[in-house]
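Task: sequence design from structure.
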């Protein structure tokens, strides 16, 4: 597919990167305030391509926050694992993070590591904006998958079945591993458990997406344990099919901006086999409470909504 120009702003160009997900945007300076037309154009590209990328955007923390705030209310860096000192909206994605590491080998599956951000919250972030600062010369790529096309590609009988199901999401170590002391303390101090529909209706487009974050979804409500396990493994394998995905090679100054309501992503693990450092920073934007095809909203089992305004609106 050739490069496309978004109609709302002639100078802002969108170059799709794969059949179903991912586009690179050029012709805009993210260190400066955007015009309303640019904001509208970027948001339109985000809705169409699920994740959009920018190159050579050397933002500092303040500029990162300012860019993000043009698209919604920011959350705290991370509701469980905290934030960068002095910058409550910024979360550090470092190769040497301790709080999110696990002890012992986990059971590796094709979907291991794939996740949608903070789905243990009743109102997961609507979007995440990740900024590359220190990038290895090779390795460290991130992948995203399109959960709308994944839903569309299910057989009609299976779509009808999962439309009525709900699942419980929580923070927990992967199967076969245990949390580090830092992880266990963080989770115990900020417990988040929520029940979400397995199929989420997008609040802006009306599209249906498989809301089955492998990193957080633990079981399907109402199914026997073995039934739940088999169904989830089938869905997790399905949503990570290569043709639904895009792979992004980071550079210093790269930014990825993704719709958390229609994507899951995979952080790299090859960086731990390399001697190079890797440092990125993330902001997230307050999200709404997911709604299933039956009109039923998600419910919090433990924990509070993410974002001050969201907490007020839901109480």
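Answer:
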């Amino acid at each position: 597919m050739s490069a496309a120009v978004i109609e709302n702003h002639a100078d802002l160009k969108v170059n799709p990167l794969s059949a179903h997900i991912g586009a690179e945007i050029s012709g805009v300076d993210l260190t400066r305030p955007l015009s309303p037309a640019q904001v509208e154009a970027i948001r339109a590209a985000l809705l169409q391509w699920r994740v959009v990328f920018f190159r050579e955007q050397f933002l500092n923390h303040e500029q990162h926050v300012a860019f993000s705030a043009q698209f919604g209310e920011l959350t705290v860096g991370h509701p469980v694992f905290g934030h960068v000192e002095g910058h409550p909206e910024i979360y550090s994605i470092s190769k040497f993070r301790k709080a999110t590491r696990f002890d012992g080998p986990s059971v590796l599956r094709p979907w291991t590591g794939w996740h949608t951000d903070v789905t243990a919250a009743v109102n997961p972030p609507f979007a995440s904006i990740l900024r590359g600062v220190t990038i290895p010369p090779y390795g460290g790529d991130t992948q995203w998958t399109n959960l709308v096309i994944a839903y569309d590609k299910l057989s009609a009988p299976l779509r009808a079945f999962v439309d009525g199901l709900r699942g419980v999401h929580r923070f927990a170590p992967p199967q076969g591993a245990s949390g580090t002391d830092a992880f266990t303390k963080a989770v115990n101090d900020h417990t988040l458990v929520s029940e979400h529909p397995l199929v989420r209706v997008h609040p802006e487009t009306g599209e249906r997406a498989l809301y089955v974050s492998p990193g957080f979804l633990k079981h399907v409500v109402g199914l026997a344990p073995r039934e739940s396990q088999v169904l989830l493994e089938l869905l997790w394998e399905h949503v990570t099919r290569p043709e639904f995905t895009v792979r992004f090679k980071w550079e210093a100054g790269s930014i990825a901006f993704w719709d958390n309501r229609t994507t899951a992503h995979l952080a790299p693990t090859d960086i731990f086999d390399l001697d190079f450092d890797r440092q990125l920073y993330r902001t997230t934007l307050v999200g709404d409470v997911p709604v299933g095809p039956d009109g039923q909203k998600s419910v919090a089992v433990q924990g509070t909504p993410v974002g001050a305004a969201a907490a007020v609106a839901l109480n």
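The longest helix spans residues 225-239.
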